[in-house]
Design goal:
Blueprint (H helix, E strand, L loop, with lengths): L9 E4 L9 H16 L3 E4 L13 H11 L23 H13 L3 E4 L3 H13 L15 H9 L5 E4 L6 E6 L3 E6 L7 E3 L7 H11 L4 E5 L6 H11 L5 E5 L2 E2 L16 H6 L4 H10 L13 H7 L10 E2 L2 H12 L4 H8 L12 H8 L9 H5 L10 H7 L7 H9 L7 H15 L3 H13 L7 H8 L1 H16 L2
Parallel strand pairs: 1-2, 8-9, 10-11
Antiparallel strand pairs: 3-4, 4-7, 5-6
């Protein structure tokens, strides 16, 4: 069943500049982007930078750049502005303070003056008693007069949510339906810290409401926070958005949530490894969701047209690198040679003969899994090769690298040095001497490239050129004779 949606759909992504964007976050961003675009709505980028201790210099710019490098963009947010600016939380502190104070006035929140030492002592006692860590509500029942007096006297304090006691908290999840817990399980969470910065929970709810976010598509790790957010919406008297908590990616080995312990997981790192952004997006599209016709290759426009978050699987999916490699290869082979050369530019070594790129690249295109493979697949065209003489001798004896073979090569003039003529002369030579076809041509491949697996042999020889092929044949013959 397709999910019904309001007339105006607004989604958002709110990364924190405390590190590189996780590949799972980019996949989640794609879902939010696609759902907004499908419904002719807006996708908002918001930067949640209230954790100044962990913030990394330059991370905000990098977040924006990697989103664009993946071929996506935002309608409102940093650099673009919009009707709900600013879109960076550290520039919205007064807004959070006003809303937190409003909750205090409504008796939905309260000032807490407990010291760090007292809170740590409570936590230690609860741990010893095998109790879940929760604030003991010590300041909850302070009179308003006493609390204001202490606050106005300069005593450090935070603002905590006054969680209603013993009442059901219901989270309506687009994928899971109704999630119901008792409010006794929810802590009187801190909303406003003593340094004037909001906690994540207050900031995200206030911003999502003020920015008119209608759908919150996020990872299932936020399910435990959803009751806190629902209580905040209810405390303010605001309409709640649609929540959809999407299963996380599992490590390629299927064991546990995809994490740095199992390898690099930043969205940027996959581009640096030579994966095409459009292949990455296609990969994200089919992890945990499938189109009606089950076709796996689709572009962004097709995904936008068909995607519905209510159809996402509840099962966590493995980040299948084999499937990603296959997809990337498909997309590489759809590129024109000119476009492939442009995409390869960051991966081509300095000694790559760019004047021969239009001759070399078509030969290796079929074997490229990632763009980063180009050096390994092409280096024998422009670097000295290393002969494996033992392997060479297993394929044929020295007779096969003989004056007869050299004579054929010399007979081919520069004008007749073509794929067709090379193949004709070498096949004729092999047939005349009744040499074992497989051994002969493998020997020749090893001799002129130093590798067992290469692009088509005759095309490769044509690109290498008569002089280099002759030089490598001579080197092989000399090396064999020296044994």
């Amino acid at each position: 069943m397709k999910n019904s949606s309001p007339a105006v759909v607004r989604t958002r992504m709110a990364p924190s500049p405390t590190g590189e964007m996780h590949v799972g976050s980019m996949a989640m961003l794609l879902k939010n982007y696609a759902w907004a675009k499908k419904n002719h709505g807006q996708f908002v980028l918001r930067i949640e930078d209230t954790d100044k201790v962990r913030e990394i210099a330059g991370a905000v710019k990098e977040i924006q750049q990697v989103i664009r490098d993946y071929g996506l963009d935002w309608d409102e947010g940093p650099e673009k502005g919009g009707p709900h600016a600013p879109y960076i939380q550290s520039q919205r502190l007064e807004t959070y303070r006003e809303h937190a104070e409003k909750l205090v006035e409504l008796d939905k929140a309260y000032y807490c003056f407990c010291t760090k030492e007292r809170l740590e002592q409570i936590k230690a006692e609860q741990k010893n008693n095998k109790q879940p860590p929760k604030y003991d509500k010590h300041c909850r029942n302070l009179s308003r007069e006493e609390a204001l007096t202490r606050k106005n006297a300069g005593e450090a304090c935070v603002i905590r949510l006054k969680v209603p006691e013993n009442q059901p908290v219901i989270v309506n999840d687009l994928l899971r339906g109704e999630i119901k817990i008792d409010s006794s399980e929810v802590d009187d969470q801190v909303l406003m810290k003593s340094d004037g910065y909001p906690t994540y929970h207050l900031g995200v709810v206030v911003d999502d409401h003020l920015m008119n976010i209608t759908h919150i598509l996020r990872g299932e790790e936020w399910i435990s926070s959803a009751p806190k957010h629902v209580l905040l919406y209810e405390a303010f008297g605001w309409e709640k958005p649609v929540f959809a908590h999407i299963p996380v990616f599992l490590n390629p080995d299927g064991k546990g949530k995809m994490s740095k312990r199992k390898g690099t997981v930043s969205a940027r790192s996959f581009l640096e490894k030579g994966y095409l952004p459009e292949a990455m997006l296609n990969f994200f599209m089919i992890l945990g969701w499938a189109r009606e016709d089950q076709r796996e290759i689709m572009n962004l426009a097709e995904y936008i047209q068909e995607f519905d978050p209510s159809e996402v699987s509840l099962k966590s999916v493995v980040f299948d690198l084999q499937k990603l490699n296959w997809l990337n290869g498909v997309y590489i082979r759809q590129l024109s040679i000119d476009e492939l050369e442009r995409r390869l530019e960051p991966f081509l070594p300095k000694d790559f003969p760019r004047e021969k790129s239009t001759a070399i690249l078509p030969l290796v295109m079929e074997r490229l899994v990632t763009l980063a493979d180009v050096e390994e697949l092409t280096e024998f065209f422009y670097r000295p090769i290393k002969l494996d003489l033992q392997l060479l001798l297993k394929k044929a004896d020295a007779l096969l690298v003989s004056n007869q073979l050299m004579a054929v090569i010399k007979k081919l003039t520069d004008g007749s040095w073509s794929v067709t003529e090379i193949e004709k002369q070498l096949r004729t030579l092999q047939a005349e001497h009744d040499w074992h076809k497989g051994q002969f041509f493998m020997m020749l491949r090893l001799t002129v490239t130093g590798k067992k697996a290469t692009p088509p042999l005759f095309e490769t020889m044509a690109v290498l050129g008569k002089d280099l092929v002759s030089e490598r044949l001579n080197d092989a013959l000399s090396a064999i004779n020296d044994l």
